Amino acid sequence: MRFLRPAVAAxxxxxxxxxxxxxxxxxxxxxxxxxxxxxxRGFEPPPGPYAAGHRGVDLRGTPGEPVxxxxxxxxxxxxxxxxxxxxxxxxxxERSTYQPVRATVEVGRSVDAGQTxxxxxxxxRGCGSSACLHLGRVEGxxxxxxxxxxxxxxxxxxxxxxxxxxxxxxxxxxALPVDAPVTSAFGLRVHPxxxxxxxxxxxxxxxPCGTPVAAAAAGTVRSAxxxxxxxxxxxxxxxxGRVTSYSHLSSAQVAAGGSVAAGQPVARVGITGTSTGCxxxxxxxxxxxxxxxxxxx
Length: 297
Description:
By secondary structure, this protein is mostly beta strands. The protein has two domains: about 10-150, Glucose Permease (Domain IIA) (Distorted Sandwich), CATH 2.70.70; about 180-295, Glucose Permease (Domain IIA) (Distorted Sandwich), CATH 2.70.70.10. Helices cover about 0% and strands about 40% of the residues. It is built from one helix and 25 strands. The protein is elongated.
C-alpha cells in the first residue's frame, strides 16, 4: 500500500471476507479465478525446492468453467508442464499460474483482472472425478501463498476522532448455530490432534458439551449419524447446492429425511470423533466445495 501524502497519517483496516490480508509489499488484492468458489486445499510450502508440498491453492469447480485472470498482466506462458496444460500471467515481479486449463489466450496478450484466460479441465490430482483449478503464485523461483491476496479488501480511515464501527463482514444468510466464540477459523491450520498442516473446512465454536445446536437455516436433513473423524454429525440440505453440517455432537435430535425450520434445535454439542474438547464444528458446502461460513453469518 502506497501512502499518497506523507503528511497525512492513515490507518489501514482489513475488512476480512474469509481470508488473510495481502502480503507486505503487495498493492492489490486478487480477483477470484473461479466465480463464487472458495479454497478447497490450501498452500503447503515445501521444506526445500525439491521436497513434497502443495505449491498453490486448489479451487473446486466444474469442467468447462471459465478461468479468470486474478490481476492485470501479460500472458507469459501457454503450454504443458509435465503433461498438464498451464497458463501463466506475469504481473511484474510476480506471476500467477493456472492448471489444468485449456487456454483461450496466447503468449504476449495483455489481460485485465477478471478476463477469461481459459476453461477448466478435469484431472487435477486429489479432486477425483471432480475438477479443481490449481492456482499458483510465484516470485522468481519462490512459491508464495495465493490466498494472502485472494480475500483482502481494504479502506483507509483517519486516526483522528472516534474510531469508526468495524465493517460488517457477514450477510446474515445463515444464523449462528450456537452462541459461542470462534475458537478456530476456516482455512489452513496445524491440526491440534495430528499436528499436520491441513485445510480446516469450517468454524469451531467453543460451546460446552450439551449446548443445543440450532439449524442455521430451513432445510431437509440429509444425514444424521457417525462420520469418521467428524464424530456424530448432522447434515442439512438447504437447496440451491448449499449444505450445512454440525459435527462432534453428543446427540442428534433429527433423522435423515426430516424437515427443519431455521433456528430449530437439531442436536447437542459434544466431543465425538477426533476432537480435543467440547465444541461444535460448523461447515458450509456450496455445490460440494467447502466455503468459509463466516461471511454468511
